[in-house]
Amino acid sequence: MYTYNLKLHKGTDNVIMFTFVNQDQKPVNNTNATFTFRVMDREGEDLLLSKTLEDVVAAKGTAKVTITEQDLDGINPQKANFSIERTLSTSNLYDAVFVDDNMGGRGVIEILDSVLPTHTASQTVSIPSFYDGPGVTTHYSSQWQSINDVTTVQYKPSSFTGNIQVEGATSGTDGLWYNIGSEVSLTSSSDTAYINVSGYHPYMRLRIEETSGSITEIKVR
Known about the structure:
This protein has 221 residues and is mainly β. The chain has strands at residues 6-9, 14-19, 33-40, 47-52, 54-57, 62-67, 78-88, 94-96, 107-112, 123-125, 138-140, 144-145, 150-169, 178-179, 184-189, 193-198, 203-220.
């Protein structure tokens, strides 16, 4: 696979298509292959992002990676590097995918603030202790004030089983909270995900009904 410099745009979803070819520039059959796409800082010291490629037409060597708006939320605009690693189901070996004609294993990727005029930083919401004693299964995050008519709530679970629900209120002190949207049910989940909330709600918070595990991080913007 040979590639030009890549670009990722903050504030939107990015889909990058790849075609894998051999030395004769013929497509490689990737039916038995799994590819891992990684983004690291320019110095190669910090891993910024890692995702598995999805097959498009494996027999013709095409695959894609989807980098969502939320994936880039905590990454500053910068010129970075990327790499792709391949493993085969028929082998225990991992090998690098060469991204230039000099057998280089790293390519250049730019992370840009270009879709939106400025990047809106996320607000970290404090979360309660999940060790409040036996029988305590319902927890509430600290409340935050809505700024826009669309709010993204990103949550990071740790082996969490239970339900989470965004709640809203017109006042932060009267205790009259109402559900916003649908409840999210999770089972032994450790996958970071997000909830989009439409409409302006003066105050919001996250209700967490825990069976096991915990929610370790909440960010909103």
